[in-house]
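hey can u run this one w/ S-adenosyl-L-homocysteine bound, need the C-alpha cells asap thx
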Amino acid sequence: MTNGIVYLVGAGPGDPSLITLRGVECLTRAEVVVYDYLANEQLLCHAPESAERIYAGKIGGRHNQGQDEINNLLVAKGKAGKVVVRLKGGDPFVFGRGGEECEALCEAGIPFEVVPGVTAAVGASAYSGIPLTHRDITASVAFVTGQEGKGKNESTIDWSRLSLGGGTVVFYMGITTLRRNMQRMMEHGRSPDTPVALVRWATTSCQQVLVGTLADIADRAEESGFKPPAVTIVGEVVALREKLQWFDTRPLCGKRIIVTRAAEQAGEFSAKLAALGATVLECPTIRLVEPENWQLLDLAIRDLPDYDWVVLTSGNAVRYFFQRMDTLGLDARALAGCRICAVGPKTADELRSLGIKPDLVPVDYKAEGIVDEFSRLDMHNTRVLFPRADKARDVIPRELKRMGAHVDSPVAYRNIFPERLPPETLFALEKRSVDCITFTSSSTVQNLAAMLGEELMLDMLKGVLIASIGPITSKTCRDLGLRVDIEPELYTLDALAEALEAHFA
Ligand code: SAH
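ok here u go:
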C-alpha cells in the first residue's frame, strides 16, 4: 500500500472556528488524527468517527511522546497507506516543529501537505485588540521563542537588534522565562516604560490579558500567578488595547452560564449567549432513545397503504419514523396514498427536506390546533397514524377518536432524562464556578432535579443566579425550593438572553 499522505494542519490558536476550510476538509477525510495539547479537541468532531485519534500532547515540557516517536508514528501510518492529519496548535511552521516532521516524512518518501493556521501571536493580537503593526507606531514585528533550545548556553537571538528600532516583539513560550527576557530587552536599550501584554489562552473563553511595562510585567505576572500558555507582546502598540479591546468587553464576558436544554430546543440560545461572551455549559435534560420495541410501529409502517392520514408532531417524530421506514427497506413512496399533517413549520421543513410536502399545517402550532383543523373535515371511519413520543399528551388520539377516526399511535421514540450531567458542567457546579443557570421549561427544572436529586440540586445552585423563561417555569422552580432571579417579560429565548444581558450590564 502506498497511497498514504500526511497533512500537517494548523488548528489555529484555540477558538475552534479559527481553523481554515482546508484544514476542516483534511480532517473530514482523515483515517488517523495525531493531535496536540494546544489543538482544541473540539476540532476532532470534523473527523469521521471511525478515524483513529492519537494524542501526542506535550504538556509544559513533559513530553508524553518524544518528537522522534511522533515522527516515527507519522512515517509508519503514512507507510501503512493511511490518510493522516497531524493537527497542531496555531500554525505548524511557527515554533511547532512542523519542519522536523516534514523532514522525517521527506526522508521516508511519504507525501505530505502543509495547511497553515492562525498562529498564537496573530490570534492573541486580534482578540486582545493589539494590532502587531500600525502605520503610526511600528513597521516591523518579530516572533521570538522565549525558551531557546535546551543545551544552548549562548543565546542565538540578537538581543540588541530585537530591543532597538521600536519593532513589536512577540515571545512564545516565554512565561517561565519572562523576567530574564524582559531584563535582556532593557539591558539592550529598550525603554523600561515600553508597554507589554501577556495574553493567555488567547481567543478562547478563558482568555486572560495582563498589561504592564518591560520594567514591571514580571512582578505583576508573579503577583497574579499568571501561567502559560501565553504570548508576551512587547511594544508601543500594546497601548492601543485601551481603545481597541472588544473581546473581553462583551456583556457576558467571563460569565459561566449553564443552559439546561429541552428536547425541542436547538443550540441557538447557547450560541447567542456565547456570542455575548459567556462561557456556556450545556446541560441536556432530555435524551431521545429508540422505543423499547418496534413491533407496533413496524406493523403500522407495513400497513401504510391503509392509512388516510399520518400526523407528525415534531422533527424528532419525523426523523425516527423515516429512519424506521428505511430500516424496513421502505422510503417516502410508502406514504404515497396518505395525507400528511405536520404540527408546525419546523416539522414541515423536516418533511420537505425528505421530499414530502405536508398537506396540512395548522394555524396554531400545537396539538389543539391539529384537532381544530381536523374538526372541519369528515374524519368518520378514517384511519390515522400518529407515531409519537412515549410521553406525548393524548389530546390528538382522544379527540380524533371522538370524531369517529381510527387512530393508531405507536411509540416511535422515547424521551428519557440523561443519567448524569456532562462532566464539565458537574465539575463547574462542584467548584462553585457557575454564575447563572437558565431554565427554559418546567421539564428542564424537573429533570435536573431528577438527575441530581432535589437536595443536591438546591445545594449546588446556592449562590447561582437562576434565570427562568416565564411564570410556569418559575413556579416549578419555586415549588422545588429554588429562588428565581431573572424572568423576562416575554416568554421567548431571545427575551431571556436580553434579560441576562441587562442583568449583567
Ligand atoms: N505552533 C504554535 C506555537 C506552538 S509553541 C502557533 O503557531 O501558535 C507553544 C506556545 O504557543 C505557547 O507556549 C504559547 O506561547 C503559544 N500559544 C499557543 N496557543 C496559545 C494561546 N491560545 N494563547 C496564548 N499563547 C498560545
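The chain has 19 helices and 23 strands. anyway lmk if its weird
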